[in-house]
Write a structure and sequence with these properties.
This protein has 268 residues and is mainly α. It is built from ten helices and two strands; from the N terminus they run H-H-E-E-H-H-H-H-H-H-H-H.
């Protein structure tokens, strides 16, 4: 009993220490974003809005005000909201360990704490940006999602978070050792938006193109999110479990990679 109590006490102490470290890192990351020219936080929140407006205007110019029966701004905006969560997991989170290398000299700060802290902040900012975007569309155009299946939308968001973490975790570990890896991945994923059904409906594509896009897990997440919000018809072969399982597998691989390299990562 004494050994068991001692073990539980150590676990609780470790948990409180890690929670405090993560909380401090989240606050630090937030202050850094807030302090970039005093507009850094604004642009993070405004990015999906600006992207949505640019693409939507292109559709409106060619005379299409609705896609799959949904107002073009709502349709495009919902795609941008999910895509930005995943894109930021590729571009921002893998830099967390390098950006906080000096803090790793403190024994209470572990490399994994920097990853978790940045992931929490980035995803919360993206969720806030999503809410502000939909509120802005309602305020300007008086249109709202129908919320045909809210649980499906929440399931899609949860899958997007797991998929984002799954990409970010192993990329953060190996990107810390090989900086060129993250740069190469960012270059490769630059055109990712074009093949992720952000700007169009999969149902509008030819059968062959639809079959090719089904290999992209992001398409499944975006389509599920839209279907939950607007009741749009999902393409044949849609499966939200597909990106979920990929995210889980990548996250497991990332945990193994971190466990193997945790001491090397802790060296500033």
């Amino acid at each position: 009993m004494e050994k068991s109590d001692s073990y539980l006490h150590e676990m609780k102490t470790g948990w409180y220490r890690q929670r405090s470290a993560i909380r401090g890192l989240v606050f630090k990351e937030f202050k850094i974003k807030q302090g970039i020219g005093r507009l850094g936080l604004f642009w993070i929140l405004a990015e999906p809005v600006v992207g949505m407006m640019v693409i939507s205007l292109l559709w409106l110019v060619i005379g299409r005000a609705k896609i799959d029966g949904v107002h073009v701004m709502l349709f495009i905006g919902s795609g941008f909201a999910i895509f930005n969560m995943i894109k930021n997991s590729i571009s921002s989170i893998p830099q967390a360990i390098i950006a906080n290398a000096a803090l790793l000299n403190y024994p209470q700060v572990k490399p994994i704490d920097t990853l978790i802290a940045r992931f929490i902040l980035e995803m919360w900012l993206q969720l806030i940006a999503m809410f502000l975007m939909f509120f802005g569309i309602f305020w300007l155009l008086d249109v709202l999602p129908e919320f045909a299946d809210p649980l499906l939308s929440l399931e899609a968001i949860g899958t997007a978070l797991i998929f984002s973490a799954g990409i970010a975790f192993p990329l953060s570990v190996y990107g810390t050792f090989y900086v060129s890896l993250t740069k190469a991945v960012n270059i490769i994923t630059s055109p990712l938006m074009l093949v992720s059904a952000v700007m169009y409906s999969v149902n509008d594509l030819p059968v062959r193109a639809r079959e090719v896009l089904t290999w992209n897990p992001i398409v499944h997440i975006i389509e599920a999110f839209r279907s939950g919000l607007f009741g749009t018809k999902m393409f044949q072969g849609h499966n939200l479990g597909y990106p979920f399982m990929i995210g889980i597998c990548l996250l497991g691989f990332g945990c193994i990679a971190y466990s193997v390299n945790r001491y090397k990562l802790a060296q500033p």
